[in-house]
Amino acid sequence: MLESKTIVKMHDLHLGCMAKEFERQGSDPACAGLSFEDRMAMMVDLEWSRRLDARVARTLKNARLSIPGACIENIMYHPDRGLDKSLFTKLSSCSYIADKRNVCLFGASGAGKTYIACALGNAACRNTLSVAYIRLPELLDELSVARAENNFRPVISQYKKVRLLVLDEWMLHPLKAGEARDLLEIVEARNAVGASMVLCSQFDTKGWFDKIGDTTVADAVVDRIVHNSYKVFIKGEDSMRKRLGLDSAEA
Fold first, then answer.
1. pLDDT band, residue 249 (cuts 50/70/90)
2. Which residues contact 243 (CB under 8 A, 6 or more apart)?
3. 162 near 130, Cβ under 8 Å?
4. With contact defined as beta carbons under 8 Å apart, do 122 and 164 qualify?
5. Which segment of 111-125, 160-174, 203-217 scores lowest on mean pLDDT?
6. For residue 211, which of 241, 233, 183 has the smallest C-alpha distance?
7. Which CATH class is domain 65-244?
8. Contact at 8 Å (CB) between 65 and 162?
9. Rg for the chain (alpha carbons), in Å?
10. d(C-alpha 117, C-alpha 114), whole Å
């Protein structure tokens, strides 16, 4: 009777995994020889693992990665791509986020930038760090609407709080003057708190100046991003889509 009431109370406290393990231990003769500390540790470990898995799942869902299944372990290090496996092993630990650094991925269309960016985002999610993925054109549209609706500052604040912001299609198209200023607001807000970004671009930093247009704004944006970033240049004549015969960049 006492055991039954304890299980009910565990469920009331949302400790379902502990309750299940408690019940299992009660019917498993092998657990009779274990100490109280060992049995409690087994229950706590299972409950902790369940909650961690749930938190990672929520973080990954909220990140809205374009390739949610991308992971560092599946990056392909073909010699012609020029990728440093040791660097990505380091990046997978998310130490660059703790160190308040950015990652800039450069490469031609189809080189696999989006996959690698999403893999970095996935690694951050697995470390229960908040992540947001968005294409730069979509972000600029969102900021434009926010200005029109007098909701600009709350939106900026929202993006400022995310530990890792993944910006795809970075400087793919020339920016209008208002878009350049809005982008600077995002970059400055995140730079002020040392929040990291992963950028995917077909153009090197010199090309960014042409896309931004306003020299003063361009200087400010580039300086706040590049001086404290890992720069990864993805090489190779064949795109990953062509190499693999797939719609996505990597397998």
1. very low
2. 78
3. yes
4. no
5. 203-217
6. 183
7. alpha beta
8. no
9. 23
10. 5
Residue 194: count other Cβ atoms within 10 Å of its Cβ. 12
Query: Which of left, alpha, beta for 28 (phi over 0: left; psi -120 to 50: alpha)?
Result: beta
Comparing CA positions, the residue from 45, 40, 49 lying closest to residue 22 is 40
Task: Quote the tokens at residue 143.
Answer: 């900021």
Tokens in use for 67?
Answer: 């390739």
3-state secondary structure the chain: CHHHHHHHHHHHCCCHHHHHHHHHHHHCHHHHHCCHHHHHHHHHHHHHHHHHHHHHHHHHHHHCCCCCCCCHHHCCCCHHHCCCHHHHHHHHCCHHHHCCCEEEEECCCCCCHHHHHHHHHHHHHHCCCCEEEEEHHHHHHHHHHHHHCCCHHHHHHHHHHCCEEEEECCCCCCCCHHHHHHHHHHHHHHHHHCCEEEEEECCCHHHHHHHHCCHHHHHHHHHHHHCCEEEEECCCCCCHHHHHCCCCCCC
Provide the residue type at 91 as one letter.
Answer: L
Q: What's the mean pLDDT when you consider all of the chain? A: 89
**Which pTM value belongs to this model?**
0.82
Q: What percentage of the chain exceeds 70 in pLDDT?
A: 93
pLDDT band at 4, cuts 50/70/90?
Answer: confident
Parts of the chain belonging to CATH 3.40.50.300: 65-244
Q: CA 81, CA 87: separation in Å to the nearest integer?
A: 14
